[in-house]
Amino acid sequence: MTTGPGRPRLTSQRRPGQTTPEEILDAAGELFTTKGFAATSTRQIAEMVGIRQASLYHHFPNKEEILVALLEETVSPALAAAGRLADAAAPATVRLHALATYDVTQLTATTWNLGALYLLPELLTDRFEPFRAQRTLLRRHYRQLADQALTEITDDSGDTSPALTDLPFRIVESAIATRADIERGLLPGPENEGAAGLLADACLRALGWTKPMDEIRAKSRALLAETAGGTPLRL
């Protein structure tokens, strides 16, 4: 992605964003999630931004690179949060709840439901291997925290089922489908009202947590504030 000035604009600013690449990503995010990736052209994206198609290529060489940048937005913040939480001095149950809270918040607070792009067949190609590797690493963080949380919940350090330790990651990503149903009018909204806390609670419940959640929620919020690392947490 190039952040240089490019050619002069055709019109005044039409899309939110402090830079032209940000405006391009916003327009592409809308088109990819509402029209479909294959059905969207770079010309259509440029027209929504109010720039020439050639100017778009100054910032992104092709449509695939725009998708790469959008996908990066969905996983990098959660991966950074997972890294900070991995070393935090808190029980694994609290750290898992905090990561889930943060991750669901990011997935539901964006303007467009970018997580819905995860199912695109194009993501199976070599160009998107870095994104797949990032998502796999995030999933591994969830599994490690789930395994540690299970030991705290059950007081059992024996081997646990991979299917069980994978549940928190799957529960968190269910926010993507829920948001899509809300946007189609199939479920009441808004999609992010209480979703982060409810799904974070569900991650622990799935592992066998039966106690009240109030204390876990309070410690989770405090931990997120402590481990922000200079990055604003949109909670």
From TrEMBL:
PROSITE patterns: HTH_TETR_2. It comes from the Bacteria. Pfam families: TetR_N (PF00440). The keyword ATP-binding does not apply. Residues 41-60 bind DNA. Keywords: DNA-binding, Transcription, Transcription regulation. This is TetR/AcrR family transcriptional regulator.
